[in-house]
Write a structure and sequence with these properties.
The protein is mostly beta strands and about 250 residues long. It has two domains: about 70 residues, no CATH class; about 170 residues, Jelly Rolls (Sandwich). Helices cover about 5% and strands about 40% of the residues. Strands 1, 3, 4, 6, 9 and 11 form a six-stranded antiparallel β-sheet that branches. The protein has a five-stranded antiparallel β-sheet with strand order 2-5-10-7-8, with no helix packed on it. A two-stranded antiparallel sheet has the order 12-13. A hairpin with a 2-residue loop joins β7 and β8.
Amino acid sequence: MSSRGCLSAVLAALLASVLHAADPSGLEYVPLDDFEDVSAWSPGDPETDLPRKDWAVAAGREVLHEGDQSIAFMIRVNWTPRPGEKYAQGWPMMRRTFSEPQDWSQYDYVEFWLYAKTDLSLNQSTVLRVGFPWKDMEVRQAWHTIEPVEPNRWQRVRVPLVMEADWEHVTGVSFYVAEGWYRDGDTVDFYVDEMRLARRTVPVISSCSAARRERGTSREPAGYSWCSSQPSFPCGRFCRSSLPCRR
């Protein structure tokens, strides 16, 4: 991209920022799940042989952020081998499968509120992950590690939808932990509330360097550009941009 073209992109973005000054977040939202009804969520992973004895999914009426309830994902880490179990240290999961695949290709984030009720410090490298399966890929999911997770307080989680996935055919949402991330006997209750999709209303400029982009391959999903430098994402990742750099 020429220096003149890059300057034009910068000026356009600045103008757009002024025009959207009334929206300080720079995002617009679409509700995804308010958890006032949690019947669509279930414990466990149908791809494993786990007996689901050490975790549960339930309405969270004691810890909530908005409305009358949240959803509670309750973990009781138990490394004791049981007859017939293939793995003593399992992967507790809660998941929701949509009735029809959803098109998230025009969104940039999934946001929700998270509360981890526990006596633990939660300072291990991995505490909780959230994932998004897509059509024809129910086992493979686009996983995101939520970090940091701070105990005993509500925190807003914003998951950038930059993972390689078929965002036009998202079939659900999953949360899981691996018992190997914890110690035997640990307990933690995760409460999730107010899940929604978000998209930018203010353009974000990708780097105007001659970064390598593999156009025409499956490595660049539709609607993405190859960003070599952008504050919100790691270098060398695909990310959405209203003003993508061009060669």
